[in-house]
């Protein structure tokens, strides 16, 4: 029974969109598979790791009786990638096998029953539903996602806080050493909703979203977050836990302020980082009248020093930071100038964009 007959790329594109979440090793063999479903309207591909589920549809009119099968995702992707893009490919069910035919090539793959494939259930109850452009959501994620924790035992930090309130969408990420906050105005009055989206979902979303004005429909409930755009739908369970009160972390009284061009500062830090200690990644920022010195040393007694002329009239200050945390924010801000605010050598620093209250980045100092 032929499932689909189409150009290789038309099958590979939706398959690639879903297969990124599939882990290499699974206790459940079926989770290494992709669910391929044919309806009278389209062909869809679905992958899940139980926590996150991605569906992508192919635009072709598949026709014929509805059919479904699951097959090893990685193998099918690798086979299709190895074929010419415009070659016609046929996927055909034969008993408990899937036959992939392209020109004179034949590949026979094992399948597992579609009815055994675990899909996430739709949540019940109230949800905050709203629409953004893909470009807006992608940029908002880019402003904060690098500050998420990776494998913290405080599991609620291994994700991104999304808050809908006061006609705004607020995103917050922190790993306990730095915190990034970004917000965006919404056009509708929505019920307040606060969710923590897992790190894996955030990274996958950032990969799949296009830099376009096309819509992404967002639905945040108490147990799930769903994002639908183009031919793709991402559904994710949420991280259960209480995110720390980020408003208490953002300093408001720092008087030592300087505004400078982002790119020269980023480049100077990038150069100094070459001689930073590989383990601790420390950098000293020495602020004086109209000048900033950037100093890195390492365990081999090597030293890098950069000096920038800046407009600064505050107190003299010598303060240490993890240089990676400073570079992360400067890499991800698409602004010509940045505003840095400091308290004393033991206080966190605040990095913002001039004349904008919709973005804040807080980084804790370190002893050097």
Gist?
This protein has 368 residues and is of the alpha+beta class. The protein is 17% helix and 41% strand. The chain is elongated.
Can you walk through the features of this model?
- This protein has about 375 residues and is of the alpha+beta class.
- Helix content is about 15%, strand content about 40%.
- It is built from six helices and 24 strands.
- The protein has helices at about 10-20, 75-80, 135-145, 200-210, 260-270, 325-330, and strands at about 1-5, 35-40, 45-50, 50-60, 65-70, 90-95, 95-100, 105-110, 130-135, 160-165, 170-175, 180-185, 195-200, 215-220, 225-230, 230-235, 255-260, 280-290, 290-295, 305-310, 315-320, 335-340, 350, 360-365.
- It has a twelve-stranded antiparallel β-sheet.
- Helix 1 (about 10-20) packs across helix 2 (about 75-80) and helix 5 (about 260-270) runs antiparallel to helix 6.
- The mean pLDDT is about 95.
